[in-house]
Specification:
- The chain is globular.
- Strands 3-2-1-4-5-6-7-8 form an 8-stranded mixed β-sheet.
- By secondary structure, the chain is of the alpha/beta class.
- This is 3-hydroxybutyryl-CoA dehydrogenase.
């Protein structure tokens, strides 16, 4: 049981992709019970395998990326705290919910509408998004004051900070609940206002998109672009390595969302990025993106 007096003991994690799996893992490692929900058993099987692999190799991955890894954990005990289910109704047991559905409003909206009916009225919903407005999510629920953005960064287990987004109706109490919960899993939250892309992705997506243009225009290849950012600026990962880690499909959705929101040509997606996504080359999770992975 986690060491906190908030009354939050069970976390509902909706979406068991790369990000959702990591979020579930981190909460389970911190002693919380987790209900991990996805639409298919196949997705949940992949999530279980991902979590097992992450737990086995996270210290090594942290060292490779220059990040501080958590102490060695009992993998069996962590997995035992995660309930894998395809029923969204099982989130009724949750004291707090973190949603990680694909960055597509047409997919996210019905999930929140159903969660609003399933969950206890005092439960906070954290939207793990890089581009969906938090205020928009609040507007389709009967609990807009309890909707907040929690933009976790990948890999979640190794990143010490989370971008926390206050929507138009988000209450001070909800913000504090989010910050306290993050502290309970060893992370710091930085609170920003609700705006397309927030802070991190409004800057990062421009950087990734412009780096993709450099490759598209044959100014440099992907390896050279990333080497410059690591060698000249001290970045742990270059922008295109970062894009591959996040997933190029997610990157493209985020850039398209910014383009639609601002109507500014600087957010026009690079044709090479669109081509890679169309080809199914989504980065690390598919084995190839801007770089090739074994």
């Amino acid at each position: 049981m986690p060491d906190n007096d908030s009354g939050i003991h069970t976390i509902g994690v909706i979406g068991a992709g790369v990000m959702g799996s990591e979020v579930a893992q981190v909460f389970a490692q911190s002693g919380f019970d987790v209900v991990l929900v996805d639409v298919t058993d196949q997705a949940l099987d992949r999530a279980r395998q991902t979590i097992e692999r992450n737990l086995r190799f996270q210290r090594m991955l942290g060292a490779q990326r220059g990040l501080a890894a958590p102490p060695t954990v009992d993998r069996a005990a962590v997995l035992a705290r995660i309930r894998f289910t395809t029923r969204l109704a099982d989130a009724a047991d949750a004291d707090f919910v973190v949603e990680n559905v694909t960055e597509d409003w047409n997919l996210k909206r019905p999930v929140f509408e159903e969660l609003d009916q399933v969950c206890k009225p005092d439960v906070v919903f954290a939207v793990n998004t890089s581009c969906i407005p938090i205020t928009r999510v609040g507007g389709v629920t009967d609990r807009p004051s309890k909707i907040i953005g929690a933009h976790f960064m990948n890999p979640v287990s190794l990143k010490p900070m989370v971008e926390v987004i206050r929507g138009f109706h988000t209450s001070d109490e909800t913000v504090q609940t989010m910050l306290d919960l993050l502290a309970a899993i060893g992370k710091e939250g930085v609170v920003v206002a609700d705006s397309p892309g927030f802070v991190s992705n409004r800057v990062l997506m421009l950087t990734v998109n412009e780096a993709a243009y450099l490759v598209h225009e044959r100014v440099a290849d992907a390896t050279e672009v990333d080497r410059i950012f690591k060698g000249c600026f001290g970045h742990t990962m270059g922008p295109l390595e970062t894009a591959d880690l996040i997933g190029l499909d997610t990157i493209l959705l985020s850039i398209e969302g910014l383009y639609q929101a601002f109507g500014d040509s600087k957010y026009r997606p690079c044709p090479l990025l669109k081509q890679l996504v169309d080809a199914g080359l989504h980065g690390r999770k598919s084995g190839r993106g801007f770089h090739v992975y074994q």
